[in-house]
Amino acid sequence: MKATLAVLCFLPLLAQEQSSPQPPPPQPPADAKAPDAKVPDTKLDTPSPAPSPVPTTENWITGSVDFGYRWVSEGGSFPTYRTFVDLGSGPKLLGAEFTITDPKHRAFDTIKVRATGWGDEPYETAHIDVSKAKFYDFSADYRDIAYFSALPSFADPLLANGITLSEQTFDTRRRFASVRLDLRPGSWLIPYLAFDRDSGSGTGVTTFVSDTNEFPVPNTLRDETNLYRGGVRIERRHFHVTLEEGGTTFKDDQSVFQSPGATNFGNVLTPIFGETTDLTNLMAAYGIRGSSRYSKGLFTANPVSWLDLYGQFLFSQPQTTVNYQQYDTGNYLLQSQLLFYTSQAYLVSAASKLPHTTGSFGAEIRPLRRVRLVESWLTDRLHNSGAASSLNTLGSIGSTGLGSTTVSAQMLAALTSSLITNYNQAEADVFVDATSKLILHGGYRYVWGEAGDAVLPPEGLISADQARLRRNVAIGGLTYRPIQRVSISADAESASSGGAYFRTSLYNYQKIRAQARYQALKALSVTADFNALINRNPVAGVNYDYRAQQESLSLLWSPQKAWDFEGSYTRSTLRSDIGYLEPEDLAPQTSLYRDNAHTASALFNWRLPPVGRITGAKLTAGGSLFISSGSLPTRYYQPLATVLVPAGKHAAWFAEWRYYGYGEPIFLLEGFRAQLITTGLRLSR
Amino acid sequence: MAADVAAPYAGSAVCQACHEDIFSAFAKSPHHEVDSDKQRGWVDKACESCHGPALKHTESADAADVRNPSKLTAAAADKICLTCHLNTPTQVGRLESSHAKDAVACTTCHKVHADGGQSLVVRKAAAINLLCAGCHTNVWAQFQRPEHHKLPEGAMSCVDCHNPHGSIRPAMGQSFGSNEPGCLRCHGDKRGPFTFEHGPVRFEGCQTCHEPHGSANPRMLIRQQVRLLCLECHANLPTANKTGTIGVVPPSFHDLRSPRFQNCTVCHQKIHGSYADRDLLR
Hints:
The complex is a heterodimer of chains A (about 675) and B (about 280). The two termini of chain A are about 25 Å apart. Chain A has a 30-stranded antiparallel beta sheet that branches. In chain A, a hairpin with a 4-residue loop joins strand 7 (about 190-210) and strand 8 (about 215-235). With about 675 residues, chain A is mainly β. Helix content of chain A is about 5%, strand content about 65%. Chain A is globular, with a radius of gyration of 32 Å. Helix content of chain B is about 30%, strand content about 5%. The radius of gyration of chain B is 27 Å and the shape is elongated. Chain B starts with a helix and ends in an 8-residue tail after the last strand. Among the domains of chain B are: about 1-85, no CATH class; about 190-280, no CATH class. Chain B has helices at about 1-5, 10-20, 20-25, 45-50, 55-60, 75-85, 100, 125-135, 135-140, 160, 200-205, 225-230; strands spanning about 175, 180, 195, 275. At the A-B interface, strand 3, strand 4, strand 5, strand 7 and strand 8 of A face helix 3, helix 6, helix 9, strand 1 and strand 3 of B.
């Protein structure tokens, strides 16, 4: 796939080289048209109603390709650099974008291709659109995104001992491909077919958990989901219906292992009942297979001029089967019976099914010229049921302090699980054009539902949980445009709840959003934003108090052709207080979270004056900074500067400098600084 | 055709005489089809399909004599677009769209006269993000935090996750398949269904624990320490009261004074749901 895409991306380069000998471009235009003259001759002779306004002398291929080389100089924590940035050194195809037009409209009208970041880059993308009017639209998209995460402070119980190994790390890539074909676009009946594929593979570090210890071990990850779908769109003047059927296949073959020979002492280094626990050999593998089918029905209609109707019916039913096998040796403690054992074979067979139904219906009614009523209703219901049977065989068992015996024990278990949620929402809004400059709207939303989560037979105190949701929401807002240059919009919600699924869910909340835009000059516009969310759950024992607020100011200024500037600044504050219980003694505590952040970004573009024969050079400088204080104070700087100098009609040289600087006072070991210099050529046509 | 001539329409060719640049760009846009498609009823009058009859304007050359959608209210301007575009699958979620509720007109994002083949709206990820950031400044600021989805890098765009025309999912989220969260389009390994589910993932979605736009916390979590994130929900005493919230306090052997128990996902690593273990350990 990669090779194909690489060839595809370089296609314009080949095309550019090949194109020159075909028509004689430096010659007079009459000659240049000669190759095309054979076919259009007849057309030109026939009386045409009107000449096409599209110039016929355009290039059949236009676009550009950027390629170059990047050098990276990095200091500090390399794992953190890879977690956040992950750009590497080497030759790169930084970007390509081109359009191929067939003036004779044979197999296609246009082919549009764009690609970014090829050459062992963390984010590689490619996209192609091919279309022929009234016949087909075809698009394909591919992305290969690196997912690397290895923060030493994260998920590492041994950090206090100076061991900087995150016990939850990933070095994987996720690849996504999507292909879609629409037939007869623009007609009233449009069949379509599509295929999506999402896959991931790579390695990482996770933990193997026994009763009294956890052992960091390597794992491999490999999963893939294929989605097939097809349907038909029926688009008429007064209604539209889309019917779609689809299905997926899913495969997940992750595994966890430790080679024999090495002893892994895990996170508990102190002896338990005089013995240390360890892991000497592990092989655990998941074999998960899944499939699903789904149906989708959409419609819109405007049966009369004052009424629009909308509706959706969606159904899906994914299901999985699981075959988990685990074999391990070492020295473990079965805590419930105070028995040590040295080997374990654990087998699980499981299956689950998740029927999920969603329906929505809405109407927009316009009883008066200036009044619109909008009503909508939504229900979303899912029910996951699972069943698992397991066989756990323990070998070489001995009582604590009595030495081992050769007795083995088998433990059989059968479990069923159930997860149910029924979510419903009904909303009515009224929009009034109070004046030609002022629109007011108000409304009411009622949200209700039930949720349940259970595993049987019960174990301990957490086998079954139920909750219900009841929420009343008042909605209001306005859009005001007193003059053409000024627009103000604001909306607010205020809710009161009688139940919520979780302690941190929206409960009694107020949400406000306001935005003002001012076009001060033709070349200067200013936008100010304000957002706030206040959420409180006063139920005894919860006492949740959450307040988040953001204010932003952005500016776009392009007073003359020589330069322009865009910049923005955002200040955000977040405060969350909620009570919880210490598990060890049920002592009430308060979880406090604070985040006060300043974020600024700016970009200055300067079109440099001509120097000798060099004209059209551009300099760009700017970047962003993020500074926060609170629960995890952080500083993150990303300045950059780019220069682009034309080198002939179809080529330009560019160079870019980027800097990434990250630091936090709590985990100083995670800080890093990186300088990246990239230089290359842009070929365009 | 004779009836059309009698109507106060001027015809696109007359518009071209004064608005050559717009006409040329329009000729290369998908909307140009209106000028030749007999089914739509605007043959040779594409300009006036949106701007209304313009004969008077062509005679007076007065801007006040022709309809300018950019000076109408958003609802009135949208009504013109929806004359043709209402009955399409794109508009199915329109009533749930906060863009529609906040009077964001179609033309805020779409260029009706645009040059560029099939593009009436920007298609490149970086350009889409720039367009959205023009209004959602505070959201774009979150992407400047160290942990973020790769939008500033141009690998993703806002519309990968959000449907700007509206959807039935919260925050105008995209869907996977028919009615599953759009997150699963790329994170298929988190889709399940799991034999043992973690309720919040199904009930309230990924954003219960993650800040998808960006965060300074590891893994885009909404708290800096995993244990606080978990314990804020897992803090209810077991009760028969069915109107309480979900999430019971962990058993007492979870001694938070020990580093072993300060990061719940070291043991409960299958936190999104487990195929094999009720306690999400494997």
